[in-house]
Amino acid sequence: MSAGVVGKAIARVDGRAKVTGAARYAADAEVRGVAHGVLVMSTVARGRIVALDTRAAQAAPGVVDVYTHLTMPRLTVPAPTTGYFKRFVPMQDENIQHAGQPVAIVVARTLEEAQQAAVLVIVRYESQTPQVVLADGLGDAYVPAPGSDGTNDYVRGDTGAGLAAAGVIVDATYTTPLQHHNPLEPSVTVAAWSGDRLTVHESTQGISNTQNALMQALGVPRENVRVITPFVGGGFGAKGPVWPHTLLTAAVARLAGTPVKLVLTRAHTYTSHGHRAETHQTLRIGAARDGRLTAIEHVVTQPVSRSDELVFNSSEPTRMLYACPHVRSTQRAVRLDLPTASFVRSPEAATSHALESTLDELSHALQLDPVELRLRNWSAVNQETGAPHGSNFLRECYERGAAEFGWARRDPRPGSMRDRDGLIGWGMATAAHTAGGRPGAGAAVTISVEGTALIRSGTQDLGTGTYTVMQQIGAQVLGLPLHAVRFDLGDTNFPPAFASAASATVPGVGSGVVRAATTARGRVVALAVADPRSPLYGVEPARISTADGYLHVTGQPSRRVSYRSVLRRHGQPIEVTSDPAPAALGYSTGAVFVEVHVDPAIGRIRVRRVVGVFDPGRVLNRQTARSQAIGGAIWAIGFTLMEHTLIDPHLGRVVTPNLSGYLVPVNADVPDIEVGFIDRPDPSSPALGARGFGETPMTGVTAAIGNAVHHAIGKRIRDLPITQDKVIAALS
Amino acid sequence: MRAFAYTPADSPEAAVRLAAEPQARYIAGGTDLLNLMKDGVQQHDRLIDINNLPLREITVSEDRVRLGALARMSDVAGHPGVRRRLPLLSQALLAGASPQVRNMASIGGNLLQRTRCWYFRDSTMPCNKREPGSGCSALEGLNRWHAVLGGSDRCIAVHPSDLAVALTALDATVTTLSAQGPRSIPVREFYLSPGDTPDRETVLRPGELITGLDVPATDRSAESRYLKVRDRATFEFAVVSVAAVVAVRHGVVRQASLAFGGVAPRPWRSPEAEQALIGRPLHAATVAAAGRALVRGAIPREHNGFKIPLVQRALADVLDGFGGRR
Ligand SMILES: Cc1cc2nc3c(=O)[nH]c(=O)nc-3n(C[C@H](O)[C@H](O)[C@H](O)COP(=O)(O)OP(=O)(O)OC[C@H]3O[C@@H](n4cnc5c(N)ncnc54)[C@H](O)[C@@H]3O)c2cc1C
Ligand code: SF4
Q1: With A53 labelled, which of A496, A629, B133, B251 sits at a CA distance of 20 to 30 A?
Q2: Per-residue model confidence (pLDDT) at position B2
Q3: pTM of the model
Q4: Which atom of ligand 1 lies nearest, measured to the CA of B92?
């Protein structure tokens, strides 16, 4: 392998196309004769449709047709294994299960005509009072049957005994609000039929899921459905599952006899592609006087819809992270009249927030430095499985992060650090998230007679840098310069890949590329050593190295031959395809340190400084990895200080369905963010020692901010977001 | 959004004539109007584009600043004369929206922007302001951002403009033109309380055109500040805001003009709070008394009670900076 291609800071290879507008996103697909679909959404949260009048809409200019449950074909509900999590398809009957559920689709020649006609659809409902408030339903909480991620009632040891043995016990209740993904690009489906073959340009994190769900919903064979997604304008989980609009658009395109493009409006995204469910969490942590944990009891309660019971705020941090003999982690559900929840970047963030905040409470109770508390409970193994981590440099993260932040200068007494106009707080927490452990991906490598490589995999690039790092991995394994390798993705005609989710792309697709490229390289080496005209003739293949487009005898760089001449002589391309292979579950961790400033007069909080040091295994690309860490910290600022989707308790409807009502951080909210990496390969990772990392850096920061606020004001605010009114209430 | 006709006007008189049509509406920057139309909150058959009217000028003289209704928020905020003579105005404008919106948004349009109450902004939810008689969803609903002062049992929406709050403290005058001719309206009388008719927000007659604003320059000895408290650092409407013009001599308040945003359906004045300050030494007890006077009669709802202490704290924070106290 040649050194240097992997590990460098390399700008995204698709960056220029994106900033110049050359990148074609799903809605940019040029499909001849495409008509425009607009959804009409239910305005009640629970009930049924009793009357529909589409005459005015149908008569409006440009309208192709208006579809409702009365005219839609019957669609099969795709199995959850396709990523279609909702347990019903809308517009199949008159029932309304949540506000913002599609009740009609208007298809017209232009978008404006479709929008204008959509307002003319009249729907009358018989509605019942919806239940949408988690706090009111806590009494009805139940433990759902085990889901795909295992049991919802996890027990290790005997927490009763562990608590009895504790020197100190802290109890705390934390809540986190309902939140949305808010990708810049809303979900898009452009569906075009040619006979019984369907091509879909989709903004999705999982083209294979989309293909499977469409195939099941519409009852067509897999080979008749092609899904294409060259670019995604952010997903954060919103586009990981498959959602109704995709199935409905494909179905109406067939009925209308014309390709149909449907772009969710921003408002529609708040009920159409999942959300992070609200949580209510109680924690009881016991520890010996020296800080060693003796027991953790953690109950997280979250709403589920009327028809599914998937809980996505999962409790891995409690189960896996810290050395603790007695742990009980229970995940409870409360049925409410809400849309289906799903995963949002860093599904472990909500439980991590409560755990890491309660540990801070414990450090106060013990009068033990929070870094020291975590060091004393560091675990070499995955506490849930007992298996050792592939590698684990979390202790090094604490030490380096603390040094870079200047943690040693912290006065632990709350309210003790000030400047001219307010209070300063320093807080820290552990960042940790599982990564990978999903079905993985295949890849196809073609080495042309010119000695360049094309690698293809049916994965997606959410904007995280998949094009870039896969090109780097391919170049590294083959020993070609970066520019001689191209990576292509986003087409179900390529070898299949798991959805770009669960921090699984680098381990899953990365290892698929490694496998295919390793085999392809072996084939080229075999050709070179078997050819009497080659300077490498007769050399043991194991003694051949490849770098910069050449094959040479290891240790004798001048005895070499270029890829190009080997392939030219061979006279035809070399093609290798790898099959998907599951990648082991990784655990990427880090330590985060935060400084906040609080103006006690008006309760205003500003995050002043974030330092994060992470262990993602080997860093494939310092620039894209750093961007993940920065983006995670920014989102964590939003998570902790401002983000929440509000649902009217009586109407059961989202009242903040736009970026004016749903606040995310703006530049002025974002301070200096310093990012460091341990950067040591994980020997267990088949992706050149790299683990998945995308979801880790959002964890830890949320609790570090909350812990810093406590350090500044001496009061603990346990309900997110921490807004000014709560600070003032705590201070008065 | 429904289709509409579009007609540019080439003089104020022509604009007023066109506006006689019942469902016509002026469009300036369009930064509020188009959102409302796209969301189906308002429907107009005709938009009269007033951007070509000669109403963009900013004139600064010794005793007053005159702003054309079509001057952009950014033009006014960055104008050296305004910054020198009326820093409060510039601060309030810069505290609003984003640079992009401010480049587009006009002063006249800013005064007439509509509330951010989300029940109002969703055309399918009950709201007395949008659809008189349909009920107020906020009274028993999510009302964290709603009014604690000056509301009625029909509507507790807050007026969102930062500019209007500053203009109220500055005692500005709105100048207009209608079929009945030109007139001047003090800003302090421009906005209506919701009462039983929350759909009526100002004293403007149908089709009346705002031509400009007259703002008296503040006393040279006075200090002023606009403080906006909100849920993120910028690009967000006020949770509460305070505009204050205060003259302190020898430690005693000689003059005080206060206005508050985010707490009431209109830019809120409190003569009682002003009276609690004038003639008294500016120390903590005076400041606290002014705060108490301000919130006397405030009505908290389920989620917005925090505004009552918050607005007093914001006022105290502003006053603490005056008279060399900090
Ligand atoms: C994202 C965003 C954030 C914002 N944040 C803030 C904020 O923090 N603080 C703040 O104060 N504002 C804020 N605003 C509101 C913004 O300031 C107003 O939208 C803007 O000032 C309206 O001016 P305009 O010229 O675009 O008006 P338009 O949208 O063109 O018109 C608004 C209304 O005024 C009427 N109108 C316009 N000009 C005249 C005239 N001369 N005579 C009679 N009627 C007229 C129109 O008919 C219409 O009814 C924000 C807006 C946006 C979009
Ligand atoms: S507060 Fe006013 S604007 Fe809001 S819902 Fe009530 S009536 Fe409508």
Answers
A1: B133
A2: 82
A3: 0.97
A4: 11
